[in-house]
Write a structure and sequence with these properties.
Blueprint: H1 11-16, H2 29-42, H3 57-60, H4 80-84, H5 96-99
Bound molecules: iron/sulfur cluster (SF4) (2 copies).
Amino acid sequence: MSEELNIPYKKENIIRCLCPTCPVQENSVCVREKIMKTQEKLHGDEDLKPEDYPGMYCANGKAECEDIDTGKDCVCPDCGVYKEFELENAKPDFLYCKDGKAKK
Ligand code: SF4
Ligand code: SF4
């Protein structure tokens, strides 16, 4: 049975996540709105909830936004979180936004 990796959902990792800049999400109105809300919360004291932020899908599960284009290239391999948790050895190996959390 596959085991989910425990990637902490915390600001330090959220800031390193490249999903908001990924071509898969670049034309999504839904993602753009979530990024604006994320910026407000990252600069305030309020905790960021997974449904607020359009990224960290390796920790968090699939994207809630439906207007993304998963035919484009995933940029996860350039991400610090991906490198730290050696996600090149995890499943799915790309497109966590489409396929869900990282697993061993
Ligand atoms: S590995 Fe991908 S989904 Fe996970 S934090 Fe990095 S860019 Fe985001
Ligand atoms: S999981 Fe990969 S493909 Fe999906 S938004 Fe993040 S970087 Fe892009």
